[in-house]
Amino acid sequence: RDTTAQSLTWTFYLLMRHPSIVRNIRNELNTLFPGLRTLVLSSNNLPQPSALPYTMAVFNESLRLYPPVPFEIKQCELATTLPDGTFLPRSSVVVWCTWAMNRSKITWGPDADCFRPERWLEEEVVGDSEDRHERGSSKQKRWKSITKTAFEYPVFHGGPRSCLGRKMAELLGVFVVASLVWEFDFAEGKGPGYGNERK
Hints:
Helix content is 36%, strand content 12%. The chain is of the alpha+beta class and 199 residues long. Helix 1 crosses helix 3, helix 1 packs parallel to helix 7 (166-183) and helix 3 packs across helix 7 (166-183).
């Protein structure tokens, strides 16, 4: 299964339903690449996901709502006790549902079912504090990414079983979203054959 391609499919599905989020991505790209008419990203000029925190937040939020692996099953080879004290005999099967965990109102708040990339961001004030007394305030606000633990956001798992392809998926996801959002407008299909219509 190609989890990154599946993640991008859901990301563009959500972007088609939230045009204001597309505008925010374009604003971020215009800030990073001012005056650029055509965005041609390659391995030579590919920005790290940290340089595009809003775009990264969009990808994370899409993964949260639509994880490519919605549930996991593991079997204990040895008897073990979980950190909360739960004892698991040898050969016990453990199942957890990432899809449900990522929509928990306890963890994500009352809007857990909503596509809101801002939950992955915090505002950071930047500027030269020494110069502001001479020329007035030069502080600006910008987005800074928030990191979630594997317990809050189990999409890539954690610990020794953490996904080896996580960084590659994030880099590729941000690269594809930035490139396509810059060049194309997306819209949901309307008419026969789209939506809930059946013949």
